[in-house]
Amino acid sequence: MTTGIIASSSISLAPLVPWQLIAILGMAMLALLALAWLRRASGSLWRTLAGATLLVALLNPSWVEEQREQLTDIAAVIVDRSPSQSVPGRVAATDSALQALTQKLGQYKNLEVRVIDAATARNGEDKGTELFAAARKVLIDVPENRIAGTIVVTDGQIHDKPDNLRGPVHGLISGNKNRRDRRLVVKKAPAYGLVDGNLAMVLRVEESGDGEKNISIDPATGYRGVARVKLKLDDGKPVEYDLRIGVDETVPFTLSHAGPTVVEIEVAAGPQEITLRNNSAAVVINGVRDRLKVLLVSGKPHAGERTWRNLLKADPSVDLVHFTILRPPEKQDGTPVRELSLIAFPIYELFEVRLEEFDLIIFDRYHRRGVLPPAYFLNIAEYVENGGALLAAAGPEFASPLTIHRTALNSVLPAAPTSKVLQGGYLPQLTETGRRHPVTADLKGSGTSDKLPDWGRWFRHIEAEVNQGVAVMTGANDLPLLILDRVGEGRVAQMMSDHAWLWTRGFEGGGPQAELLRRMSHWLMKEPELEEEDLRAAADRGRLTITRRSLSSKLAPVTVTLPNGQQQTVSLKPSSGGKATAEIAADEPGIYRIRDGLRSTLAVAGNLNSVEFAQVHATTSVIGPVSKSSGGGVFWLSDGRPTAAGIPSLRRVKPDRRASGSDWLGLVANGSYRVTGVKSAPLLPAPLALLLIAGFLGFAWWREGH
To answer: Is 518 found in the same domain as 385?
Structure first.
């Protein structure tokens, strides 16, 4: 941008010979003329004039007139629009200062003003406020001799490096420099933790501000008092702690389930709070179970016995205790005891002392053989009702008079035998409930309601009547094949066939036996991902995905509570495997709470412990040194100056002058221009120079002759 055309005149020299030759010639002439004057030689004056004319002619002077186009200087105004500027009062102060600045700067005709709003990084990275990068970018195409300066309107919380800034940098600080702020800092938190294990995180409560030196410290304790902190897991009941301010404190907690747990931490508001956004934090911790202990008790050896053992042994998280009853008490063949290579069944230790240590008990074709006294079956039933897990894989023995259903286990087993064993090929299929239940939903090759499964047949089915629970698979004659039930706080599964091993052997193409048994075992052990009635949510890349699993096909809407407290009703769309999903925008960082009337869940979007809100008090600690080194100044908008919006007065200063004072800031007036036209005329044309030199020499000769 230009501000008009002006004319400028000057004398220009364009030597006809090199400067060095002119200098040598001049010194030689000066020496000869000096000698002539000392000897009072006749004609010395005319010789001097002739020599001077010769030197001037060699210098070739010209009268130059330039047409100059005046160029404007460029000033940058960087406006901080980061989240920390959303603190009450700062937006109004910033907008008022910006309006006053633009009005004042608009009064200078030879000044171009570039205003840019700078926010946090758009790529989702938590880098905080990068104002200096914005200042470099807005002036990147401007030559050095046209930069008037940079004015930054900010709260002072800047997180990038001030490299390669040109011109004076001035700071206008929004906010009150005497305000303090309390914030919660998660110094250390585990990413994983054992369920029911002793875990801890390190928290720190800080109070900061430019007036921090006024905070009193108790000389007896050496810290600034205490603050009440609440810790809440998965929207549960909060636990309160009193933490010392300014001291790293260790806070214990325990995870109650496997899978992700959202831990919310909140500190009570301080006496002078700028914002409550940094008084809370959230950490997602994945709960993992310690090695699962499984007790497998096999009855009569059969072809499928090794299938259970191999499946459980292949899982590195499972500690398996396996006993097969090879020699029941009633077996008497005269073999001396010392020659037997069998291990005595430690029934007292397993079913009395250590029963509660097991996460799952499996009876594989087990029947009453006089090994377990009736009282131990009662212990197992109580173990299930108190939260244990039981899997009964039935064989022909389950339909015999020695069935375990005729023990205290009949109170927890969902199906009772009819004494019939069906022999013949059949294709296991999923029920409508099974297509929605997480144990059997979407099993590979399971087919659809209109298409038969792609897996192989089984050839034995133990007929039973289902008294409770749900049948998720059917077998021969559409009779229940796999029944799942919840008993008290525990869970029970019954498999009414012992031919699952045919799938492992690949008979008729086999089937997903390993996946089925894995899901069934983990459902029994209350794996959160296999809950049949479940509500989950996850936030990623600005989107919140909600997933609800249910055995019911009803699609009731869910209520989402946003981090700002507003509520939003969201309708779910049905998906496969008993799931219904929805996706909404999650642009605001924070905790999203989702409820469907019966269940609730949490999701954390963005970085709740972001750099932007780590410090929110107004400060000059970052921009102050930058302004000082560049010759600029820093001014508080809350100082109540007599000028508009509290901004200092503006001045244009020369490049070599200071650019700030106690109540004013300066923008450099560079005076840059562009030459649009040149007119040149020689002051001593060659013919005139020759005529003058000849004339002066002629007068010198004439004077010497007289």
So the answer is: yes
Given a contact cutoff of 8 angstroms between Cβ atoms, the answer to whether 9 and 64 are in contact is yes
pTM of the complete model: 0.69
Give the list of residues 6+ apart from residue 446 with CB closer than 8 angstroms, or none: 429, 430, 435, 440, 453, 455, 512
Which one-letter DSSP state was computed for residue 643?
S
Q: For residue 690, give the H/E element and its range.
A: helix 686-705
Same domain, 118 and 235: no
322 & 360 share domain: yes
How is residue 590 written in tokens?
A: 């924070």
Domain count of the fold of the chain: 5
Structural domain includes residue 612: no
pLDDT one-digit tens code per residue, 327-355: 555 555 555 545 544 556 677 888 888 88
What's the pLDDT tens digit per position in 10-43?
A: 777 777 778 788 777 778 777 777 776 776 666 6
Q: Give the tokens for residue 9.
A: 């005149």
Query: Do residues 354 and 490 share a domain?
Result: yes
Average pLDDT over residues 403-420: 92
Q: What is the CATH number of the domain that holds 268?
A: 2.60.40
Burial class (CB in 10 A: 0-12, 13-18, 19+), 164: exposed
Q: Which comes out higher in pLDDT, residue 619 or 326?
A: 619
Beta carbons within 8 Å of 158's beta carbon, 6+ residues apart: 80, 128, 129, 130, 131, 132, 622, 623
- The mean per-residue pLDDT over the stretch 492-518 comes to 90
State which amino acid sits at residue 672. Answer: S
As a whole number of angstroms, the longest Cα–Cα distance in the chain is: 168
Q: pLDDT tens, 678-703?
A: 777 777 777 776 777 677 667 667 76
Block residue for tokens 């019966």? 598
Q: Which of 553, 575, 605 finishes a domain?
A: 605
374/463 same-domain check: yes
CB atoms within 10 A of CB 88: 8
What residues contact residue 291 under an 8 Å CB cut-off, 6+ apart? 317, 318, 319
SS (H, E, C) 290-343: CCEEEEEEECCCCCCHHHHHHHHHCCCCEEEEEEECCCCCCCCCCCCHHHCCCC
Query: What is the structure's pLDDT at 563?
Result: 83
- If one counts every other C-beta atom within 10 angstroms of the C-beta of residue 369, the result is 16
The enclosing domain of 169 has a CATH number of 3.40.50
Q: Given a cut of 80, is residue 114 above it in pLDDT?
A: yes
Tell me what pLDDT residue 460 has. 93
C-alpha–C-alpha distance, residues 172 and 618, integer Å: 11
Q: Please check whether residues 186 and 275 belong to one and the same domain.
A: yes
Domain that holds residue 245: 181-281
DSSP state of 398: G
